[in-house]
Amino acid sequence: FEELTRLAGVFASLGTEKIRLTGGEPLLRRELDVLVGLLRAALPTMELTLTTNGSRLLPLAAGLHAAGLTRLTVSLDALDEPTFRAMNDAEFPVHRVLAGIEAAIEAGFSPIKINCVIRRGVNEHAIEQLAEHFADPRHIVRYIEYMDVGNTNGWQMQDVVTAGEIAQRLESSGKLTALPPNYAGEVARRYRTAAGGEIGIIASVTQPFCQGCNRARLSADGRLFTCLFAATGTDLRTPLRAGASDAELAALICQVWEARTDRYSEIRTQAGGLREKVEMSAIGG
Question: Cβ distance 249 to 236 under 8 Å?
Fold first, then answer.
């Protein structure tokens, strides 16, 4: 935790404005609220967020909010049990996730983002259902095009429900009004719904945003990745434990960042989605 907090401080000194705790599933990590507290104490003005599958949110939400977590995102691909389990291979029921979301709202998290990956032939019906269920201002629904993350999900382009299709289906339920981005590099195209809620659509397959990407990813074993689809990362843990100063760590991070050439999403059709990549469970979304 102390090493992660120190590296977070180095990134903050280079201009990082948001830190997201992700996974795998971050709520499986023991004493996660302690890490949140350390990060908040070291970086009192940092936007500190977390992405979770919601399986352990019910008992932990209040403690995380009290420790200083700012925002919360919950991955939820369907509301009905069979589709939820088909999309996630989950060993927990969907009602546990929904109860966790309610607990998080009661703890003070609002609005909560609901991330939904849409896969053709599996959960298209969830597009309208999620928009209706989470229509009030306490939630923001994010629809994400199905991507070839990692090496084992059997991705094919024909399984992608495009951002255009998602928007068209939602438009049929009521008018969508385009909203401006909250910040430079925001990946979601935001819309206000007819009911006054907000949805966003992330078109990383059909409308890639590699050139505007401003995200760095740090794995649990201390490797820096500059792309969700990268094959390798740069080891920061070894120099940190060998006594590197903050300035030396910052110089290494800058060297890696300034040499980025990542554009996998832009060349996906040529690559065929077959290139070896780091698993998403190692570096999050």
Answer: yes
